[in-house]
Amino acid sequence: MHVRVFGGSAANRAWARSGCLLVDDHVAFDSGGLASELSLLEQVSVDHVLLTHAHLDHIGELAFLVDNVMTARAAPLTVWAPSAVLDQVRRHLFNDQLWPDFSKISVSHHPVVEFRALETEESLVLGQLNVRWARTSHPVPSVGYLVENASGAFLYTGDTGPTEAIWALAGQASSLRAVFVEAAFPNRLQDLATVSGHLTPALLCEELKKLQAPEAIINVMHVKPVYHDEIAGELRALPHPWRIVGGGETFFLKP
């Protein structure tokens, strides 16, 4: 399994894209960096985008990705998320006001984009990938994803405060190799992290006590750049091997 990080930070800047993993070139989780970092040919190769939630830093580049590839694809780009997330994306972004509703526009006899709702018990199979999801804790409807194939599994939480279901889902993986999880604020701003549905290094330490995979590497995302060094220092207390990812990293999960 080939995982590329196109957004890891909490800021949408050239050096700090927010919220996006691209798996095996065809399946993306959130959209940060898909339109701005991929070549046009690479953008056309993205067949599926799975969204964690509808905040702008995670869905904003989806608007430009759809616009860029609409005449170059032989099939719709499929956007997946639970219905509560898709409802917000369609109401506030693809609403024919802020951006066209490309699900109503056809090119070469197919719609430009298809919005597909994930059901609670659904296990989604995309090629060699098996994808499951669980709810996370954020001010808007939000989920995280467990992604598995024969090489192993990784967990992508998206944005979340302290939560339970996503860690229970992680425990169902036969070989969890990596976790992509956030730590947006330093410990001294825990009150702000709590009200905004994010984690600090101290809160992340507590969350990782729920993770039954001691060898999984913790890839820390959504670090706000203004606090980067402070958060990095506090992350030394994590009970797992860890690294901060900000975009541009590539990982291979091998059997």
Verbal overview:
The chain has 255 residues and is an alpha/beta fold. It has a single domain, classed as Ribonuclease Z/Hydroxyacylglutathione hydrolase-like (Metallo-beta-lactamase, Chain A, 4-Layer Sandwich). The chain has helices at residues 34-37, 40-45, 56-69, 83-92, 165-170, 190-196, 201-208, 228-234; strands at 2-7, 20-23, 27-29, 48-50, 77-82, 106-107, 110-111, 113-118, 124-126, 129-135, 143-149, 152-156, 176-182, 217-221, 242-244, 250-252. The longest helix has 14 residues, at 56-69. It starts with a strand and ends with a strand.
Strand share of the residues?
25-35%
**CATH fold call:** Metallo-beta-lactamase, Chain A
Q: What is the CATH homologous superfamily assignment? A: Ribonuclease Z/Hydroxyacylglutathione hydrolase-like
Please report the total strand number as a whole number.
16
- Could you give the distance between the termini? 9 Å
Task: Kindly give the count of domains.
Answer: 1
Radius of gyration: 17 Å
Query: Tally the helices: what do you get?
Result: 8
The CATH first-level class comes to Alpha Beta
Largest sheet: 7 strands, mixed
Q: Give the overall silhouette.
A: globular
As residue ranges, the low-confidence spans are none
Structural class, by secondary structure, is alpha/beta
SSE run: EEEHHEHEHEEEEEEEHEHHEHEE
Mean model confidence by pLDDT: 93
Helix content range of the residues, please?
Answer: 10-25%
The CATH architecture can be given as: 4-Layer Sandwich
Please state how the strands of the largest beta sheet are arranged side by side.
8-5-4-3-2-1-16
